[in-house]
Structure formats: structure tokens, C-alpha cells
């Protein structure tokens, strides 16, 4: 059970000196979210201190931990509350302890009930870390608006690129209805600030196509009901050809009035079951998935049609940019898969409706152990963008090898695109501060399954935890995140802490060095992507070549005499990558044919 509870173990810790007011939790409101917050706090305090707090529903109480949201009128004794309120966003919170407010007790105040819940998880984290509670004064808001998780779960119970057992949502073509597991999952995700989860694979097969029909919507709604309590909106991946596969229409053309009407009424039905449904995640015209290209329409035509259907209900369309020709001839050194996403989407900037969000993988290829950052970031000022990471370790050791990905993700977030001059970091694009995006944020393909410890190996939990913390606040350092996770997972033993931290810190670079150094990528076995293979992909159609021969190794992507990929970057980075002198060592084979020197 220790590993089942991940970072929410709430181990007994006698060094915590619980103040008297720990024996009372007062909730100022009726919502299920506030109740869940109180329940979590009660569990945490009981397990850690042995005090069993009573939970009371009252307007206000002095000698207690009070949980309430700002729209509640009875908050007292906090000077400058209005001012504070302006400093947090809708999911933010304030935690103030007795000495700060001049009263006995502690207040956790959110702008919304979800903010209160986040505040509770914050307090519990502090207690697990062994911090005192006497002078807490915290004002906190998430930096990113959409903080998502994508599942690649299939309804037969399998998970595409899953390394931790079967799906927690489905089995044998049905929904599992495993409310306990799903609730614990929601707690874990909420504790790290996740607010949106898509619950089925982006490759939507025949049976999952029906998730948006009345056959399965009642079951999906049960999941959404649990998620909602924890501040999480439910999303579904959809099959672009649904109007044909389940709607009985002869086409899925986005400009066909019947197709549009079909999606409009589908949306109505979905929202009847799930009033706060988040929207659709769409993989279209990618790796044999259907899409608007069949009808000579653009991605914008396709996405906008779905966006119009969801718009009246506040839903969004998250359209993936993982689009490339997966039937390339390896001898054709002109077609460069790395260029594909930019070539497809950049010219469409300005054509998408404002409830469409483009979801862009961190690199131009496919979640390799090391890749350059996708040049699409910053290149579309008028199009909402979400960054996609991969927590599940498809190309990074499949949760059998240790590969701590926080350092990789930090490099991506801190990458300067120069889109608007120096300081145009990826993290400032996806947090919506560089361009005034209506929607933006970060998502990731998750690593969890039915295994007792969720992630196949307990150390792989670090990537899941770190992902949530990092996208809540990309300015957190790797060390802060690691420290938090290690203590909450393994406790306070100094030797254990130092050993685990050192293992995590080095693991990504070590993994890179023994699998695919210098940015060469793809040194894996085809299909399952595990284990080393130098030529596994070299003569296949996927566009993933290293071109190693007696002259050298690597793909020449320069403008001068290569594929020209380098020119998709803004000037400063273009210059950097164009020359072998300035190209960072770890990306040499991504940008140049690195010569093998002979005499
Ligand atoms: C690749 C996976 C494949 C996914 C695809 C995607 O190998 O299973 O379907 O990405 O992101 O990494 O759509």
C-alpha cells in the first residue's frame, strides 16, 4: 500500500508538533469538492499526527483549520483580503496561519472550491516535509491554465505504450466502473494540480468511437463525476470519421452540412451527460488516422467544425500536430519528418477558431531521449498552443530503466525561441503570457496502469509527480521537485534521500549516453521501441533515419546543403543550429551529418 499511495502516504511523523486547532476542520460551504478537501485533510492529519480532527460545517470558527472559497461572505480577520484576492487566479489559494491573522487557527482560502482543495494538498505536502505550521503565509496560483493528462487507454483494457498493467478505466470492451481506483487516481492527480484528463487513446478504434454515444456516455459520466469533485474536467479522444462509423453518413467532410449537424447534436448529447465536459482530443490525418485531407480540406476546416459544435457548451478542440508522412522513402533525403508539423500548421495561423488548441509534441520527431525543441512554439501568435510531453517511458526505458525526465522537460520549457526577441521561452508561450492566447497549457501522455504501484516501478512515480509540479510552476527547480517527491515517498532518512536523489539526477543523461547520444535518436527496436537496435528503423518508411555509413552519421538539416529544417527556427536558433561549430554537442546528429574522419 505504500507504493499505491505514491506521494500521498502521510506517514506518521512524531516530530510534527500539532497545534490545538488541528483537532477541528471547518468547512465553509456545501460542495463535494470542499468535503473532499476536508476528508483529505482529516486523513492526512490523523495519519501523520494521530490527532483525529472533527469536521464541522460552520460559517466561521476561530480555533480550527477553516476551508472556504472567496465567494463566501463570512471570511474574517484577514487584512487586505480584497487585495490578496486580486493576486490569485481562479485556481489559486491563500494559506494563512494564526500568527499571520492574529487569531487561533489556520485558513485555507481559494478563489474557488478547487483552489481550496489545492491549498489543502499544499498544506499536507508541507506537513509531510516536516515544516512547522506557525507562520504560514502562502499566496499561490498555477502558472498554466490547462494542466492535462492524456491516456492512451483502449477499451479492451490494454494501453498503447503502457508499462504498468492494464487500464484503470476499461476492460474487455467495457468501462470497469472501478470507482475506488478512479477516485484515488483523481486524488493523486489533483494533488499535483492536474485539471483535465482525456481518458482514451488518440488512436480511436471501432469500440472507443462509441464512447460519445449513449451506449457508453452514462459510464463516462461516472468517471467525470468523480473527476469533477477533484477539479478535473474529462476529455475524450474522438475518431474523425465518427459520422460515418457511427452516424450512418456517407462522408465526414467538415464542410458538409449534415456532418456539421451530426457533430452539433453529438455535442448536445454529450453535455447532457457531462455538463462540464472538457472537449475533444483529435489525432487526424496522422499515422493512417482519418482526417479532413480525405476531402481536400485543411486541419483548420476539420478543427473548426468540431469547435463550432462544442462552443455553445464551453468545450474546446485539442487538435494534435503530430502529422507527417509515415510512408517515406528512406533514400529521399529531401522529405524530412522533422519539418512536417511546422510545414502543415504554421501557414494556418489565424485560421483556427478561438476554442481550438493545437497540441504540439516537445520535439519535431517523437519523444526521443533527446530532440531539439519544436520550432512551432512561438511561430503561431494567433493560434492557441498546448505543449505535449510523454511521461510514459516509450523511448526512455519503459519504466524498467531509470530515466528521470524533469531535467529534459525543464530544458524544453526554458528554451528560448526568440519569437519576440530574447526571453521568449517556451514556458512563456504555453502559459499564455507571450501571446494573448485564450487557451494554452501543457499536457502529457501518462504512465499509469492497474499495477499496485501505478507506474510499474515506484521510481517511475517521480516523473508523474514532477510533471504535475513542473507544469503548475515551470520556475520550480529540478532540485525542489525532487526533494519534495523523495521525502513524501521515502521519508526522511538522510542516506535514502541522498541516494535516490543522485540516482534520479543523473539518470536521463546516462540513459541518453547508452542508448542514443548526440541527438541521433531511434536506436530502438521497431514496434515496441525497447532495447537497442542500430538499423531497426533505418530502412523502413517512418522517416527516422540516421544515415550512418563510411562517411559519417546524422541528418544534415541545414539550409546550406541539407533539408532546411534549421530555417524553421527564429534567427538566433537558426544560426546556432546551421553551423557545426555552434550546434550544441548533444544535438549534433539532429542537425548535421557528422563526418567520420579518415586520413
Ligand atoms: C508514437 C507512438 C504511437 C502513438 C503516436 C502518437 O509510438 O503509439 O500513436 O506516437 O503520438 O510515439 O500519436
Total of DSSP H or I helical runs spanning 4+ residues? 18
Ligand roster: beta-D-glucopyranuronic acid
Unreliable parts: none
Q: Which outline best applies?
A: globular
Sheet/helix structural class: alpha/beta
User: In angstroms, what is the radius of gyration?
Assistant: 25 Å
**Largest sheet report:** 8 strands, parallel, barrel
Distance between the termini: 62 Å
Query: What percentage of the residues does DSSP assign to strands (E)?
Result: 5-15%
Number of extended strands: 18
Helical percentage? 25-40%
Strand order of the largest sheet: 7-10-11-12-13-14-15-16
Subunit structure: Homodimer.
Protein name: Xylan alpha-1,2-glucuronidase
Domain Glycosyl hydrolase family 67 catalytic: 127-454
Domain Glycosyl hydrolase family 67 C-terminal: 455-591
Can you walk through the features of this model?
With about 600 residues, this protein is an alpha/beta fold. The protein contains 18 helices and 18 strands. The strands form four sheets. The protein has an eight-stranded parallel beta barrel. A six-stranded mixed beta sheet has the order 2-1-3-5-4-6, with helices on both faces. A hairpin with a 2-residue loop joins strand 8 and strand 9. Helix 5 (about 180-190) packs across helix 7. The radius of gyration is 25 Å and the shape is globular. It starts with about 25 loop residues before the first strand and ends with a strand. Beta-D-glucopyranuronic acid (BDP) binds near residues 160, 203 and 367.
Amino acid at each position: 500500500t505504500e507504493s499505491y499511495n505514491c506521494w500521498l502516504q502521510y506517514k506518521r511523523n512524531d516530530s510534527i508538533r500539532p497545534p490545538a486547532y488541528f483537532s477541528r476542520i471547518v468547512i465553509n460551504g456545501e460542495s463535494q469538492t470542499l468535503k473532499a478537501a476536508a476528508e483529505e485533510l482529516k486523513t492526512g492529519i490523523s495519519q501523520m499526527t494521530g490527532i483525529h480532527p472533527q469536521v464541522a460545517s460552520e460559517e466561521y470558527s476561530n480555533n480550527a483549520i477553516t476551508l472556504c472559497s472567496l465567494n463566501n461572505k463570512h471570511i474574517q480577520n484577514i487584512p487586505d483580503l480584497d487585495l490578496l484576492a486580486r493576486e490569485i487566479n481562479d485556481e489559486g489559494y491563500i494559506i494563512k496561519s494564526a500568527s499571520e491573522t492574529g487569531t487561533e487557527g489556520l485558513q485555507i482560502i481559494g478563489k474557488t472550491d478547487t483552489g481550496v482543495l489545492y491549498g489543502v494538498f499544499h498544506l499536507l505536502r508541507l506537513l509531510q516535509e516536516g515544516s512547522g505550521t506557525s507562520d504560514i503565509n502562502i499566496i499561490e496560483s498555477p502558472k498554466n491554465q490547462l494542466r492535462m493528462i492524456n491516456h492512451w487507454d483502449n477499451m479492451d483494457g490494454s494501453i498503447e505504450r503502457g508499462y504498468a498493467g492494464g487500464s484503470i478505466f476499461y476492460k474487455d470492451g467495457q468501462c470497469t466502473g472501478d470507482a475506488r481506483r478512479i477516485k484515488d487516481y483523481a486524488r493523486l492527480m489533483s494533488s499535483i494540480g492536474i485539471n483535465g484528463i482525456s481518458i482514451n487513446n488518440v488512436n480511436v478504434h471501432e469500440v472507443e468511437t462509441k464512447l460519445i454515444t449513449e451506449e457508453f456516455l452514462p459510464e463516462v459520466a461516472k468517471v467525470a463525476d468523480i473527476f469533477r469533485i477533484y477539479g478535473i474536467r474529462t476529455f475524450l479522444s474522438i475518431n474523425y470519421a465518427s459520422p460515418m462509423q457511427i452516424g450512418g453518413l456517407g462522408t465526414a467532410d467538415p464542410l458538409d452540412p449534415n456532418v456539421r449537424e451530426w457533430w452539433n447534436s453529438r455535442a448536445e448529447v454529450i453535455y447532457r451527460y457531462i455538463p462540464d465536459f472538457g472537449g475533444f482530443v483529435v489525432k487526424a490525418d496522422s499515422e493512417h488516422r482519418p482526417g479532413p485531407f480525405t476531402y481536400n480540406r485543411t486541419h483548420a476546416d476539420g478543427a473548426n467544425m468540431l469547435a463550432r459544435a462544442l462552443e455553445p457548451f464551453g468545450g474546446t478542440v485539442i487538435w494534435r500536430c503530430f502529422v507527417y508522412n509515415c510512408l517515406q522513402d528512406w533514400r529521399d533525403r529531401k522529405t524530412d519528418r522533422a519539418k512536417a508539423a511546422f510545414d502543415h500548421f504554421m501557414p494556418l495561423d489565424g485560421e483556427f477558431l478561438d476554442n481550438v488548441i493545437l497540441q504540439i509534441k516537445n520535439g519535431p520527431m517523437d519523444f526521443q531521449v533527446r530532440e531539439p525543441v519544436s520550432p512551432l512554439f512561438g511561430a503561431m501568435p494567433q493560434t492557441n498552443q498546448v505543449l505535449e510531453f510523454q511521461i510514459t517511458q516509450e523511448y526512455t526505458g519503459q519504466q524498467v530503466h531509470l530515466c528521470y525526465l524533469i531535467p529534459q522537460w525543464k530544458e524544453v520549457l526554458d528554451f528560448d525561441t526568440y519569437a519576440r526577441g530574447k526571453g521568449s521561452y517556451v514556458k512563456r508561450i504555453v502559459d499564455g503570457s507571450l501571446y494573448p492566447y485564450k487557451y494554452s497549457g501543457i499536457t502529457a501522455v501518462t504512465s499509469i496502469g492497474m499495477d499496485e504501484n501505478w507506474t510499474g516501478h515506484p521510481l517511475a512515480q517521480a516523473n508523474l509527480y514532477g510533471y504535475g509540479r513542473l507544469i503548475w510552476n515551470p520556475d520550480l527547480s529540478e532540485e525542489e521537485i525532487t526533494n519534495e517527491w523523495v521525502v513524501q515517498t521515502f521519508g526522511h532518512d538522510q542516506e535514502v534521500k541522498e541516494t535516490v536523489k543522485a540516482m534520479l539526477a543523473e539518470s536521463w543523461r546516462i540513459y541518453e549516453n547508452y542508448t542514443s547520444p548526440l541527438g541521433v535518436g531511434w536506436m530502438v527496436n521497431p514496434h515496441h521501441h525497447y532495447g537497442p537496435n542500430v538499423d531497426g528503423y533505418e530502412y523502413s518508411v517512418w522517416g527516422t533515419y540516421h544515415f550512418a555509413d563510411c562517411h559519417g552519421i546524422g541528418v544534415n538539416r541545414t539550409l546550406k546543403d541539407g533539408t532546411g529544417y534549421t530555417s524553421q527556427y527564429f534567427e538566433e536558433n537558426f544560426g546556432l543550429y546551421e553551423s557545426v561549430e555552434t550546434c550544441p554537442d548533444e544535438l549534433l546528429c539532429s542537425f548535421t551529418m557528422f563526418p567520420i574522419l579518415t586520413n
